Amino acid sequence: MSEHKNGGIDYIELPAADVAKAKRFYGEAFGWTFQDWGPGPQYVSFSNAGLEGGFRVGEAAAQGGALVILYASDLDAMEQRVIDAGGTIGAKHEFPGGRRFHFTDPNGNELAVWSEQ
Q1: 21 to 3, 25, 27, 60, 78: CA distances (angstroms)
Q2: Which stretch of DSSP H or E encloses residue 20?
Q3: pLDDT, mean over the chain
Q4: Which of 2-6, 52-56, 84-88 has the lowest mean pLDDT?
Q5: How confident is the model over 82-105, as pLDDT tens digits?
Q6: Would you state the pLDDT for residue 26?
Q7: Total count of domains within the chain
Q8: In a domain, 6, yes or no
Q9: Higher pLDDT among residues 40 and 87, named by residue
Q10: Is residue 102, in this structure, part of any structural domain at all?
Q11: Contact at 8 Å (CB) between 56 and 46?
């Protein structure tokens, strides 16, 4: 069980119009694991992501909100995993101390991955 920090970010939810695509993508690209809740399912939680979260089943993604940024020890290898799992690579940035790329998952959510390399 994770430790909760008062005032800390505790859980993240992503919209997933197609939850099967979301589970396949995040499982293949990042090794996340899933728990279905309710028939259908009505909600899917994920773990093994550094922070627990879930998919809001049947909701469409919206652009321009908060950006979830994941970490990779090998950014180039992670970029290839994202592509192989069905993600679309977007902007790439270099900055003092590292670099990152943005990607869109199969449901249209934009996230990013960064590395110190």
Answers
A1: 30, 6, 10, 13, 19
A2: helix 19-30
A3: 94
A4: 2-6
A5: 999 999 999 999 999 999 999 999
A6: 98
A7: 1
A8: no
A9: 87
A10: yes
A11: no
For tokens 């899933």, what's the residue? Answer: 34
Apex 80 CA angle, 47 and 49, nearest 5: 10
In a domain, 105, yes or no: yes
Question: φ and ψ at 88, to 5 degrees?
Answer: -115, 125
**Residue 78 main-chain phi, psi, to 5 deg:** -70, -40
* pLDDT at residue 53 in the model: 96
Domain assignment of residue 41, given as a range: 12-115
DSSP state of 53: E
Residue 37 maps to a domain: yes
Structure tokens at 12: 């993240």
Give the CATH number of the domain where residue 108 resides: 3.10.180.10
